[in-house]
């Protein structure tokens, strides 16, 4: 099977509302197109622009979609491809409150409310249990980027404040990694879920201790997967990773005249999302040679997780109410740009472990620790 170029998949999820602006937002019956109509108000309109109609066509609209339906549409195939050696990335983008964290993590209260991460964990361990001859190992890390500083959500004491343990983004021979970020081997579903919820708790604690809101930071949950034969004479290994990203709220706070800490946060977020947007534009342009990965921590960390050889999916979370139409428009524009990015997914090359400890496999994994 040869490689084929495909686009990054872009989905739009509409947050349920009883005040859906049906005269302004028209969802196509193909479940892919979305049209926006803005009637000019006497005061000059919400958008200071002569254009009043926009049409977007994406890979799918998730409207009144359950968590299970979202998982089926967005993640299921990407996760099974990861078990065949393909790297996969899923990213949630949108303004605060639009449903990014609900989509990515969901609510722990009831199973049906669980989001993409716990469902992906379940799928991996379920598949692993079904493989007769293949041993699957899973390792997890959970990184937060707040005001251009990296925090380890699974080792908060190490990640926060202490100079000696500053986390840094590094370009290694195996790709980009975060030096100092803890990586945790997990052997069953419950163990992985436990780490996810521990990380979520550290996000919440952070909100109080640093007076920040989790919507002001980017959170990246990564699963490093390794498949090898159960036959101990066969040393072939296949590695892949799944990167699941809950981005900071995309609303542009600068114009609301916020002050102090909030203003600093807003400018960091605006910058990192603007750099992400510039990166996406560069990635979508086949003539561009320079791809600006190093402009922010977020884009640097995501260097080999967007497009390229990965399966990449974007979920843009939007509100359906009239009052959020301006942010909805800008989110849909981002989704369209992302949709232009092409990728050529290819499975990672298998490598061979040496007998005993160490060897190229062991070394590659240690890279993530150091
Ligand atoms: P964000 O992370 O984008 O700031 P959240 O995911 O925290 O937004 O969502 C804000 C609130 O709306 C939460 O209470 C969440 O449970 C709820 N919510 C978001 N999307 C949905 C949905 N599709 N169905 C039900 N509740 C939702
Ligand atoms: Mg959130």
From TrEMBL:
Q: Where in the cell is it found?
A: Cytoplasm, Cytoskeleton, Flagellum axoneme
What are the record's GO terms for cellular component?
A: microtubule
Record's keyword terms, sorted: ATP-binding, Cell projection, Cilium, Coiled coil, Cytoplasm, Cytoskeleton, Flagellum, Microtubule, Motor protein, Nucleotide-binding, Phosphoprotein
Recall the GO molecular function terms of this protein's record: ATP binding; microtubule binding; microtubule motor activity
What SUPFAM superfamilies does this protein's entry cite?
A: P-loop containing nucleoside triphosphate hydrolases
Q: Which Pfam families does the entry link to? A: Kinesin
Binding residues annotated for ATP, in chain numbering: 94-101
- Family that this chain belongs to: Belongs to the TRAFAC class myosin-kinesin ATPase superfamily. Kinesin family.
How is this protein named in the record?
Kinesin-like protein
- What organism does the UniProt record list as the source? Catharus ustulatus
Q: What is the lineage of its organism?
A: Eukaryota, Metazoa, Chordata, Craniata, Vertebrata
């Amino acid at each position: 099977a040869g490689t084929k170029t495909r686009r990054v998949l872009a989905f739009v999820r509409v947050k349920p509302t009883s005040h859906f602006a049906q005269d302004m937002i028209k969802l196509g019956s193909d479940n892919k197109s979305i049209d926006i109509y803005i009637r000019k108000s006497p005061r000059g309109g919400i958008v200071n622009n002569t254009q009043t109609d926009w049409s977007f066509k994406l890979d799918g609209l998730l409207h009144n979609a359950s968590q299970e339906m979202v998982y089926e549409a967005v993640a299921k195939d990407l996760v099974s491809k990861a078990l065949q050696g393909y790297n996969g990335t899923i990213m949630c983008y949108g303004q605060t409150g639009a449903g990014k964290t609900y989509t990515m993590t969901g609510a722990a209260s009831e199973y049906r409310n669980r989001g993409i991460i716990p469902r992906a964990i379940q799928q991996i361990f379920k598949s692993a249990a079904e493989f007769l001859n293949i041993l699957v190992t899973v390792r997890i890390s959970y990184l937060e980027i707040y005001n251009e500083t990296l925090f380890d959500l699974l080792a908060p004491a190490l990640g926060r404040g202490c100079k000696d343990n500053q986390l840094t983004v590094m370009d290694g021979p195996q790709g980009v990694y975060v030096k100092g970020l803890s990586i945790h081997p997990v052997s069953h579903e419950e163990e992985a879920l436990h780490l996810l919820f521990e990380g979520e708790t550290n996000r919440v604690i952070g909100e109080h201790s640093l007076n920040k809101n989790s919507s002001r930071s980017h959170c990246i949950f990564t699963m490093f997967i390794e498949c090898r034969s159960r036959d101990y004479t066969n040393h072939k290994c296949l590695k892949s990773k799944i990167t699941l990203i809950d981005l900071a709220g995309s609303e542009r706070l600068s114009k609301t005249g916020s002050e102090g800490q909030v203003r600093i946060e807003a400018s960091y977020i605006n910058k990192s999302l603007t750099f992400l947007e510039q990166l996406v534009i560069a990635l979508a342009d086949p003539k561009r040679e320079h791809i600006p990965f190093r402009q922010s921590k977020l884009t640097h960390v995501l260097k080999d997780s967007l497009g390229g050889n990965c399966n990449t999916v974007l979920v843009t979370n939007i509100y359906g109410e009239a009052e959020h139409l301006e942010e909805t428009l800008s989110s849909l524009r981002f989704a369209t740009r992302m949709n232009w990015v092409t990728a050529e997914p290819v499975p990672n090359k298998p490598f061979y472990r040496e007998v005993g400890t160490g060897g190229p496999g062991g070394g590659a994994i240690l890279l993530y620790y150091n």
